[in-house]
Amino acid sequence: MADILERERRGRVEVLRLNRPEARNAMSPELSAAIEGALDDIEPDPETAVVVVAGNGPVFCAGADLRVIAAGGGAGIMTKRGGFAGLAQRDYPKPVIAAVHGAAVAGGFELVLACDLVVAADNARFGLPEPRLGLAPGGGGTQRLPRIVGRTRALEVLLAGRVLNGAEAHEWGLATRVVPKEELLAAAEELARTMVALAPAPLATIKRIVDEGMALPLADALTLEQDETAQLIVTPDALEGIAAFVEKREARFPGRDALRSRSAR
User: Fold this and answer.
1) Catalytic residues
2) Can you tell me whether residue 76 is helix, strand or coil?
3) What is the pLDDT of residues 178-227, one digit of tens each?
4) C-beta separation of 84 from 46 below 8 A
5) What is the crossing angle of helices 107-114 and 141-149, to 10°?
């Protein structure tokens, strides 16, 4: 039996592919746990700088497996951290990119919303149809979507069942870029490689203070930013980055190289 989650290392980018195409990659307890387990493995791994989440088959993810829910196993789809695949309530330090083709609906859309960046194929579709089933989104959809697109637009998706295509997702600020389906993974990897070349500590800091700052009043958020970024200025990575800029050469970040050296031992 094929693995329900395929993993592939491409340089310092780890690609996770949902692999239940016969079920439209619907989220089962096993798939949800497999994604969370992969993220747990990758988090301390210095060789992996960026994660890409994609789907095999005709769609990205059709949400929770309703057959499992109907049989009474719905609770198992939510992982120990809450939400699908343990991302909904997780402060994950490494950038995560969703590479979306076909449908990303219900919990599949919520998985996308929990990622940091989204590359959409031109055939991508995004929606939260839970009210048609007598349900409400419970994996972050009611909270993350308004923060990304604003309350009014989010309510059109949540209350009126609007489904966004790839171009609309880009227009609304959900997707970083829209590409032909056959170029999707290459475009996501290209985006990932731009981050691979950077120092890891600032990326983790930026992710954290963006998320924490959005929950604070602006004055408090600016203080958080100043306090956190001030600590980076004196690090070896910052000194190297500045020196490399002045000397017009590629930076050799000690933090990144030290992590990779320890991993090789």
Assistant:
1) 110, 130
2) helix
3) 999 999 999 999 999 999 988 888 898 999 999 899 989 999 999 999 99
4) no
5) 50
Dihedral over alpha carbons 65, 21, 80, 213 (to 10 degrees):
-100
- Tell me, what amino acid is at 80? K
Structural tokens at position 56: 């095999």
Pairing outcome for strands 50-55 and 117-121: unpaired
What is residue 265's predicted lDDT score, i.e. its pLDDT?
Answer: 39
For residue 67, what are its two tokens?
């057959």
Residues 221 and 140 grouped into a single domain: no
d(CA 75, CA 92): 23
Amino acid letter for position 246: V
The type of residue at 5 is L
d(CA 141, CA 17): 22
Which of 140, 163, 196 finishes a domain? 196
Phi, psi (5° rounding) for residue 21? Answer: -60, -30
Q: Which domain holds residue 105?
A: 5-196
